[in-house]
Amino acid sequence: MHANEADFAKYLLEQRVLTGITTPDLRAKFLGKTHALPFMLGPVGFLGLYAGEGEMKAARAAAKAGVGFCLSCFSIASITRLAKQVPAQPMFQLYVLKDRSLALDMMGAARAAGVKTLFVTVDCAVTAIRERDVRNGFRTLTRVPPVLALKLAQRPRWCLEMLRQGKLRVEALEGRKEFGRGVLAQAAALSARIDPGLAWKDLAWVRTQWPGKIILKGIMHPQDANWAQQLGMDGIVVSNHGGRQLDGAGSTISQLADIAAAAPEIEVLVDGGFRRGADIVKALALGASGVMLGRAMAYALAAGGEAGVGAIIAHLAKEIEIALALMGCPDIATLRAEGARFVRQV
Ligand SMILES: Cc1cc2nc3c(=O)[nH]c(=O)nc-3n(C[C@H](O)[C@H](O)[C@H](O)COP(=O)(O)O)c2cc1C
C-alpha cells in the first residue's frame, strides 16, 4: 500500500520551457470511448456506507465531469437502479462466484442496465487479512459496542444519512434469504462465495458468457498479462487491489511498463496510490491508457458527497493540465505515444 504511493517518486517528469502550450487537451481514448479526462472512478465496495446513496453520488459526479464510473458488485445500490437514476452508461465489476448461476444473474442484470464493459477482479480469490477490518469489526459486527457508539455520536450527519437510507442492504441480493439480513452479513456471505479456485479456464467461460468488453482487474505479472491477451480479454488493470491483498507485492507504477510491453494488443489500465495529477501523467507516459481511482474517490465521497467527488476530479484535472503545460506536452495522445520523452526513471 505504501509502495504504491511512494514509488511515483522514482519517476521524474521532464520540464520543457518556451513551448507556447498553455491549455493541453486532456481528452483520452480508452475502453472504446473518448473520455473528458484520462482517469475514471474504479470499483470500491459499499460506497453507500461512505455517504447516503454514495454510489449514486459518485456516479453522478463522474457523469457530470465526463469520466467513467465502475460499480462494484459489493454495493448497496444495484446496477439496475444506478442505470435508471444516473444518466450515463455505468461499468460493472464482478467477482466470479462459486455459484456460477449467481454470477450469471449479476452479468444479466448488468447487461440489461446497459453495461458494455465488465471488470472481472481476479486478485481476490483468497481474501487477505485486513487488520483494520478485523479491529473495527467490519463484517462481523452484530451490535454497536460503546467505543463505536461514541465515534458515531461525533458524526451526526453521517448517521442521519444512513438512517434516511432505511435498512442497509445489498440490493442485488434482493429475495436471496440465504445471504442473511443486513449489509454486513450480506457482505460476509458474498465474500465467502467468491470462487477461491478460479483459474484461467474459468475466464474462458466468462468470455463465452459476456459479449461486451472484459477487463481483468488485478494483473501484476507480464506473463499473466500476456495470457489475458491470448484468452481474448479486451484489457487488464495493473492492480494490487490498492495494496490490500498480497503484502510485499510490488507497486503498480513500478511494474506497469513491463506488463504493458507483454500485452501490446490490449488495453492496459492501472490503479493504486494515485493521489496527484502528476502521478496520472507518469502512468500514461509509462504505457497506461487510463488510470482508475480508488481511495481518492472514496475519501472525497466521505468528506463531501457528490460535490466532494466532483472537486477531486476537478482538482486532478487541473494538476494534469498544469503538468502537461510545464512539460510542453500538447495532449494526452502525445503523452502516451511519446512517453519516453516525458518521463525518466531514477
Ligand atoms: C475500501 C476499498 C474497497 C474496495 N472494493 C473493491 C471492490 O469491491 N471491487 C474491486 O474490484 N476492487 C475494490 N477495491 C480496489 C480498488 O478498485 C482499487 O484497486 C484500489 O483502491 C486502488 O488503489 P487506491 O485506493 O490507492 O487508489 C477496493 C479498495 C478499497 C480501498
Automatic annotation (TrEMBL):
GO process annotations (BP): aerobic respiration
Statement: the UniProt record of this protein carries the keyword Oxidoreductase: yes
InterPro entries per record: Aldolase_TIM, Alpha-hydoxy_acid_DH_FMN, FMN-dep_DH, FMN_HAD, FMN_hydac_DH_AS
Cofactor: FMN
Signal peptide start and end residues: none
Highest taxon listed in the record's lineage: Bacteria
Keyword Protein transport part of the UniProt annotation: no
Domain called FMN hydroxy acid dehydrogenase: residue spans: 1-345
Positions annotated to bind glyoxylate: 95, 241, 244
Active site per database record: 241
Binding residues annotated for FMN, in chain numbering: 43-45, 72, 93, 121, 130, 217, 239, 271-275, 294-295
Keywords: Flavoprotein, FMN, Oxidoreductase
GO cellular component, one term: plasma membrane
GO molecular function: FMN binding; L-lactate dehydrogenase (NAD+) activity
Protein family: Belongs to the FMN-dependent alpha-hydroxy acid dehydrogenase family.
Protein name in UniProt: L-lactate dehydrogenase
Organism (species): Acidocella aminolytica 101 = DSM 11237
